[in-house]
Amino acid sequence: MKTTARTFNETVFAKIGFLVCWIPVLYFDSAYSKIEGGVWITCLLTAILFVFQYKKATLRLRLLMILIVPLSYIGELISTEVLGLYAYRLGTVPLYIPIGHAVVYASACQIFLAEPIRKWVQIRRNKILGAYALLFLLVLLFLEDTLSAIMGAFLFWMLIKKRNHSIYLIIGWVVLYLEIIGTSLGNWAWDQNPFVFHTTNPPLGSVMIYVGGDALLNKTLRIALRIRGRLVP
Questions:
Q1: Tens of pLDDT, residue by residue, the chain (233 residues)
Q2: CB 3.0–4.6 Å: which of 100, 101, 161, 184 could bond 72 by disulfide?
Q3: How far is CA 17 from CA 9, 20, 83, 118, in A?
Q4: What are 88's strand-pairing partners?
C-alpha cells in the first residue's frame, strides 16, 4: 500500500511538476518583464518544451501535436479578432501560443496516461465532476459569471456524452492553472463583458475551449487518416 502511494506521489511530482516550467517561460512576455523582445525568448522556450514533449509522445499524440498548431492558431484568430473574447498583451496572437497549445495538450495527455494518475481519476470521477459542478455554481452565484455557466453546461454535456473521456477532467485543471498564470502575468486578458454575458479574468469556462478543441482535433485526425488511407494503396 505504501509502495503504491509512493509511486503515485512520484508520478504526480514528475508529471505535474513539468507544468511549473510555464511560470518562467511566460514571464519573459509578461507585463512585468523588462526585457526587450522578451516574447521571442518565450517563443524559443516554448519550442524547446514542444520538442521535449514530442520526443516522449506516442505516434498518435505526435500527430495531434502537429495538427493542433494550425487549428489552434485559427481558433485564436476567431476568439480574439472576430469574437473579441480576450486579447494578448502585444495586440496580436504571439507565435508561442499555438505551439504552447500543443505542449499543454500533450502535457495533459501524458499526465492522464500515467497509470497511477489515470486510475486515481477514474476511481474518483464522480467526485471530480462534483467539484467542477460546485465551482461553476460558485462563480455563477458570487461572481455572476454567466459565460462560464453556459460553457460549463456544454462541458458537462460533453462529459456525459463521452463517459470514457475522463482525460477531460485532467485537461480542465491544467488549462485553468495556465489561464491563471497567463492572466496574472498579464500575457493576455479576457473581456469581462463579452456580448450579453459577464465573466471573470480568467473565466472558469475557458476549460471548455480545450475540451471542445480536443473533440474537433480528434475528429479532424480521423478524417485525415481516412482520406490518407483512400489515397495510399
A1: 555 555 555 666 666 777 899 999 999 999 999 999 999 999 999 999 999 999 999 999 999 999 999 999 999 999 999 999 999 999 999 999 999 999 999 998 888 888 888 888 888 888 998 999 999 999 999 999 999 999 999 888 888 776 657 788 888 889 999 999 999 999 999 999 999 999 999 999 998 888 888 888 888 888 888 887 765 55
A2: 101
A3: 11, 6, 34, 17
A4: 188
Cell numbers linked to 68: 493542433
Instruction: Judge whether 60 and 106 are in contact, CB under 8 Å.
Output: no
Residue located via cell numbers 450579453: 196
In sign, the C-alpha dihedral spanning 85, 89, 95, 98 is negative
By three-state DSSP, how is residue 87 classified?
Answer: strand
224/215 Cα distance (integer angstroms): 14
Residues 21 and 206: their CA atoms lie apart, in Å, by 21
What residue has cell string 485525415? 224
Contact 182, 19 (CB under 8 A): no
Give the start-to-end residue ranges of the domains of the chain. 2-231
SS3 94: coil
Closest to 97 in 3D by CA, of 80, 116, 110:
80
Report field, pTM of the whole predicted structure over 0.85: yes
DSSP state of 198: -
Number of other residues whose CB lies within 10 A of the CB of residue 69: 15
**Omega within 30 of 0 (cis) for the link into 202:** yes
Count Cα neighbours of 168 within 13 Å in the Cβ-side half-sphere: 28
